TrEMBL record:
<comment type="function">
    <text>May be involved in the biosynthesis of molybdopterin.</text>
</comment>
<dbReference type="InterPro" id="IPR001453">
    <property type="entry name" value="MoaB/Mog_dom"/>
</dbReference>
<dbReference type="InterPro" id="IPR013484">
    <property type="entry name" value="MoaB_proteobac"/>
</dbReference>
<comment type="pathway">
    <text>Cofactor biosynthesis; molybdopterin biosynthesis.</text>
</comment>
<comment type="similarity">
    <text>Belongs to the MoaB/Mog family.</text>
</comment>
<dbReference type="InterPro" id="IPR036425">
    <property type="entry name" value="MoaB/Mog-like_dom_sf"/>
</dbReference>
<keyword id="KW-0501">Molybdenum cofactor biosynthesis</keyword>
<feature type="domain" description="MoaB/Mog">
    <location>
        <begin position="9"/>
        <end position="152"/>
    </location>
</feature>
<dbReference type="InterPro" id="IPR008284">
    <property type="entry name" value="MoCF_biosynth_CS"/>
</dbReference>
<dbReference type="GO" id="GO:0005829">
    <property type="term" value="C:cytosol"/>
</dbReference>
<dbReference type="Pfam" id="PF00994">
    <property type="entry name" value="MoCF_biosynth"/>
</dbReference>
<protein>
    <recommendedName>
        <fullName>Molybdenum cofactor biosynthesis protein B</fullName>
    </recommendedName>
</protein>
<dbReference type="InterPro" id="IPR012245">
    <property type="entry name" value="MoaB"/>
</dbReference>
<dbReference type="GO" id="GO:0006777">
    <property type="term" value="P:Mo-molybdopterin cofactor biosynthetic process"/>
</dbReference>
């Protein structure tokens, strides 16, 4: 089995949790390393569209970061700002991610999946996935969508070839 490790940043948006209490970010960080990737950075910030946009813009401009995983900020609470903050940064949206995530979530949480604004896109050859903040949602997204697409072995296509920035 061939493998190309990617540099992945993990960001949690939360007004209530601390990094020590962040089980979703911890899950993503541990799981990506277990899959053979490198944790490029891990942060937790408040749900503020301008802080979010500034941090993600730094990662997009950083040649060392190839993928960004963001959890939280995708619901319908007034402080959920990820879609409005980040979609303008995308060069190209990955429409199927949100659609497939909601389909998979429907099997787990029923019609509550309608309240997920999970989305993804490419910006400056950086792949950005935004998912709900629950650990179960992060597990569903990683195991069924993100993890397989970050493997060079996924055929007929995967995203490894799309994140062309050097390691």
């Amino acid at each position: 089995m061939s493998h190309e490790p990617l540099n992945i940043a993990v960001l949690t948006l939360s007004d209530r949790r601390t990094l020590a209490e962040d089980s979703s970010g911890q899950y993503l960080a541990e799981t990506l390393v277990s899959a053979g990737h490198r944790l490029g950075d891990r942060q937790l910030i408040a749900s503020d569209r301008y802080q979010l946009r500034a941090l993600v813009s730094q990662w997009i401009a950083d040649a060392a970061i190839q993928v960004v995983l963001i959890n939280g900020g995708t619901g319908f609470h007034p402080r959920d700002c990820a879609p409005d903050a980040l979609k303008p940064l995308f060069d190209r949206p990955v429409e199927g991610f949100g659609e497939l995530f909601r389909h998979l979530s429907f099997n787990e949480i029923g019609t509550s999946s309608l309240q997920s604004n999970a989305f993804a896109g490419l910006a400056n050859d950086t792949l950005i996935f935004c998912m709900p903040g629950s650990t179960n949602a992060c597990r569903t997204a990683w195991e069924q969508l993100i993890g397989p697409q970050l493997s060079i072995d996924t055929k007929p296509c995967n995203f490894v070839t799309k994140v062309s920035k050097s390691n």
